[in-house]
Design a protein that fits this description.
This protein is α/β, with parallel strands linked by helices and 164 residues long. Helices cover 47% and strands 18% of the residues. It folds into two domains: 131 residues, 3-Layer(aba) Sandwich (Ribose 5-phosphate Isomerase B, Chain: A); 31 residues, no CATH class. It has six helices and seven strands; from the N terminus they run βαβαβαβαβααββ. β4, α4 and β5 form a beta-alpha-beta unit. α2 packs across α3. The longest helix has 17 residues. The protein is globular, with a radius of gyration of 16 Å. It starts with a strand and ends in a 5-residue tail after the last strand. 36% of the residues are buried.
Length: 164
């Protein structure tokens, strides 16, 4: 499986460590962060790059997932979810990551280097990469409905209006 990996300046060191670890474990890793540490690197660029790469792979039926590493991971999750087709989750626990893969077909995992030790980051990544989407009818419908809304502002032909 191909893993798209990126990080801002707060997650750079952790992401580079994870990059080497993933490669050693046999994954093909594509780096979407800066070539070297730069304390001015902001998270939006790297979250978007990883998101675009994963969605493009999905469109081309290439098996891949994305991992973004930031300071807390919160803002990076927001940005990665702005990429059309991005289904990013914040890595908070193995059970939450497993559930998001099984039932929401999450395709981007966001980690907070300041929030968790390396060992937990690795456990979250393994859960993310080794858990399949169950493709249960209700879950698949929800993923499709979300994509439909993302693309057209409607679900099943009905306009969703904003609350006043």
């Amino acid at each position: 499986m191909l893993v798209h990996l990126g990080a801002d300046y707060l997650g750079y060191e952790r992401a580079r460590t994870l990059e080497a670890w993933l490669a050693e474990a046999g994954y093909e890793v594509r780096w979407h962060g800066a070539p070297e540490y730069d304390h001015e690197d902001d998270y939006p660029v790297y979250s978007i790059r990883v998101g675009h790469a994963v969605v493009q792979d999905e469109d081309n039926t290439v098996m891949s997932r994305g991992v973004v590493v930031g300071g807390s991971g919160s803002a990076e999750t927001i940005v990665a979810n702005k990429v059309r087709g991005g289904r990013a989750i914040a890595g908070v626990s193995v059970s939450a990551v497993t559930d998001a893969r099984q039932h929401a077909d999450a395709n981007i995992l966001v980690l907070g280097a300041n929030e968790q030790p390396l060992e937990l980051s690795q456990a979250l990544i393994m859960a993310f990469l080794n858990t399949d989407f169950l493709n249960i009818l209700d879950d698949a419908r929800r993923v499709i409905n979300t994509a439909e809304f993302e693309n057209s502002g409607t679900i099943e032909g009905w306009l969703i209006e904003e609350a006043e």
